[in-house]
Amino acid sequence: MNHKLAFSWHSSSWFIAIMLALPIAALFYQAIGPSADVFQHLVDTVLLDYVQNTFILVFLVCLISSIIALPAAWLIAMCNFPGRKVLQWALMLPMAMPAYIVAYIYTDMFDYAGPVQIALRAVFDWQSASDYWFFDIRTIPGAATVLALVLYPYLYLLARTSFLEQSTSLIQASRVLGSSALSSCIRVSLPLARPAIAVGLSLIAMETVADFATVNYFAVNTLTTAVYDTWIGHGSLTAAAQLSVMTLSVILLFVGLERFARRKQQVFQKSMLHEQEVRYQLTGCAKLLAMVWCWLLVFAGFLLPFAVLVNYAWHYFAESWTEEFFQYSANSLILAVIVAGLAVLCAILLGLYRRLVGSKYATIPARISTMGYALPGTVLAIGIIIPLTSADFLLNDMTELLWDWTPGLVFTGTSFALIFAYLIRFSAIAVGSIESSIDKISPSLDMVTRTLGHRPHSMIRKIHIPLIRKGVLAAFLLVFIESMKELPTALLLRPFNYETLATYVFQFASDEMLEQAALAAIVIVLVGLIPLIFLNRSLEQQH
Asked: What DSSP string runs through 72-96?
């Protein structure tokens, strides 16, 4: 690679990395400024409750997710029973369901005025709430249960993959030594799957900390809702930045604990190609319990909420089929396509830079560019608004000085802020997908191409791009879907009179009127099923 071309790759890659990391730097810079005693007021009053609620919620979500996902993952991977082939992908369906929609549906179902309690009062002739006890879903345990129903597929997917990759000789050895299926699971399979379980739980913990809509709907105050309330309610950007740094620190703590817990762990148990699958054949009560457990998870996490949405959409079709629905659908579509395209371009550039340069320092820009994925939407919005506000002031000062004219809020008052925020948030997905595809290309192809006299640009066009097409498509789809579903960032950064499908649905859900936005919610869910289809096909090819 000649010096001019190398400089172009270096400068482009580092520019992308710096721009994507800019909000994090701005966040820390803003956090060291004075907050007009707002932060101190929070410390003296409610901050401890926010922190406690956050940790309790994370603990409960991880605990419930483990109880839900690990038995299901082991049953699907290690046992034979009717419906297993359908359940292995059906158990991933709750990932497509936004948690705040599930929260609304179950709240409407189990509240005092909901059909469940109405039926109980009719059957037992109870007259008021004082005549009986019924759990309150609008609590931390209620929020944790709803989040676990939506987030458990992260753990299920990783644990199931780990169980499938375990050497069958170890399972056979445990059988020879007299271990039952349950004993083999507890003493062999679960310890070997510990790294995958730790990664799955850390992902669930990060998603829980980042959640805004569900906890806000349940009136559970966490650090994420505190950021929103401090910025919008108290009007203190600095105090919100300080809370954002605390939230980010909690996320980094979970990631650090997960890596520390398995820092010295080495697992050598990959299955060999000649090994045959060995599954327990379930019969009798065990077969029935396995089927009921797995189908109950699919029903509670996806089928029931989706059926309720379809019922709402059918009965309120006229209220849902409006000009606003088409306008907001178009907004979401255009926004998602732009963000997905930019994320893919950045990921290709960063991935090929690492490939062509080949030094250990060439991986740094890609690693920096993925840092934004750890930021919750409300925290990212704070980090975005700080530099873009300064950019707006600078641009208006310059145009007024030069031409006596001001363009207004070009960056913070348009969809530019949303595009920039989404790009920072979801670039990690594109980088991971495309890097994985690039790493599968044999280095010998590069050597042969160079031997034949092709320059780097020609090699990229004729060799690399055609070979990573599937990775590029997967990256585009994944970023597109995430952009369609993103809510907290859109709530805080959207311009005036600009809505996406996610904000449109959330506004109706917050006003207890989800029925009128059910059609929009169904669109979000159906779009979210696309990556699950690709993911299931990929897993079927591997196993």
From this structure: HHHHHHHEE-TTHHHHHHHTTGGGG
How many Cα atoms are found within 13 Å in the side-chain-facing hemisphere of 380? 29
d(CA 115, CA 431) in angstroms, rounded, equals 46
**Positive or negative torsion for Cα 380, 381, 384, 390:** negative
CA dihedral 362, 367, 370, 372 (to 10 degrees): -120
Query: Position of tokens 């997908």?
Result: 433
Residues in the chain: 543
Q: Cα separation of 165 and 193, whole Å?
A: 9
Beta strands in 222-328, from DSSP E residues, in sequence order? 280-281
Supply angle C-alpha 494, 495, 501, rounded to 5: 45
Q: Which residue shows structure tokens 């629905």?
A: 325
For the purposes of burial, counting CB atoms within 10 Å of the CB of 340, is it exposed (0-12), middle (13-18) or buried (19 or more)? buried
Measure the CA angle with vertex 355, ends 354 and 360; round to 5°: 50
pLDDT at 288: 92
Which residue ranges in the chain fall short of pLDDT 70?
1-7, 34-36, 166-192, 254-278, 358-359, 443-450, 452-463, 534-543
pTM for the whole structure? 0.82
- Which residues, other chains included, contact 417 with Cβ-Cβ below 8 Å and sequence gap of 6+? 384, 385, 388, 411, 493, 495
Tokens 């009717």 correspond to: 82
Interaxial angle between packed helices 469-485 and 518-542, expressed in degrees from 0 to 180 and rounded to the nearest 10: 150
For position 297, what pLDDT does the model report?
94
| Residue the block writes with tokens 């987030």 | 151
For residue 484, which of 508, 504, 469, 468 has the smallest C-alpha distance?
504
